[in-house]
């Protein structure tokens, strides 16, 4: 969640554009409601959005239209992408999307699909949480954040080996305080493990950038 979503879109797109060649055709295969996909489209890239959630994908398209940019969207599982081989110059999977996949087999299936839809000379860009650090500290919660309109949100993390269940609490004030709780489970995969899977999927020499984006960023070429 970002207090100023449009500012976050612009900032993240500027950071990502350092790694996305001019004129590239981009697939955001976990676009959510469009934070990175819309930002990149607003910088002039040709972007297609896909997300497992049809609701999120539709909203990304609506939000893009509201900002005057084109963003074709589709509901799709990153393990079975509905695109022809050799269709994109860059594939992105950001905002810690890939650790929703809880097994090496599922992660490999997704990475191989991303490689399949990439053109030769293309690249994969992935961001995940800094699990190298988080596995050492194993936090149980995040500090509360306050947004416009008296909205408060925080997370509780319940660890189970190298996985954790995250509960996102959102409190907003109506006639009284209302609470909404969303749950998700993640694999706290470290960078060595993720690099190994990317190489097994056919990507050459993945490289990590720890301060170029708000999460560690992996750039993996496909020759």
TrEMBL record:
Domain of life where this protein originates: Bacteria
GO molecular function, one term: sequence-specific DNA binding
Domain HTH araC/xylS-type: 190-223
Alphabetical list of CDD domains matching this protein: AdoMet_MTases
Coiled coil: none
The protein, known as: HTH araC/xylS-type domain-containing protein
């Amino acid at each position: 969640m970002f207090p100023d979503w449009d500012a976050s879109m612009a900032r993240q797109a500027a950071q990502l554009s350092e790694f996305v060649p001019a004129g590239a055709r981009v697939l955001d295969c976990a676009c959510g409601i469009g934070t990175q996909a819309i930002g990149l489209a607003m910088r002039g890239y040709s972007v297609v959005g896909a997300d497992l959630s049809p609701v999120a994908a539709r909203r990304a398209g609506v939000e893009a239209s509201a900002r005057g940019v084109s963003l074709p969207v589709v509901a799709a599982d990153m393990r079975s992408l509905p695109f022809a081989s050799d269709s994109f110059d860059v594939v992105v999977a950001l905002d810690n999307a890939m650790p929703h996949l809880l097994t090496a087999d599922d992660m490999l299936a997704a990475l191989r699909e991303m490689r399949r839809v990439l053109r030769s000379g293309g690249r994969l860009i992935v961001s995940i949480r800094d699990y190298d650090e988080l596995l050492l500290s194993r936090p149980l919660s995040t500090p509360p954040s306050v947004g416009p309109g008296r909205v408060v949100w925080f997370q509780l993390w319940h660890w189970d080996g190298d996985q954790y269940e995250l509960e996102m609490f959102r409190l907003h004030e109506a006639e009284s305080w209302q609470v909404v709780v969303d749950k998700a489970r993640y694999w706290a995969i470290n960078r060595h493990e993720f690099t190994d899977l990317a190489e097994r999927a056919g990507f050459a020499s993945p490289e990590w950038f720890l301060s170029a984006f708000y999460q560690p960023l992996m750039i993996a070429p496909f020759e």
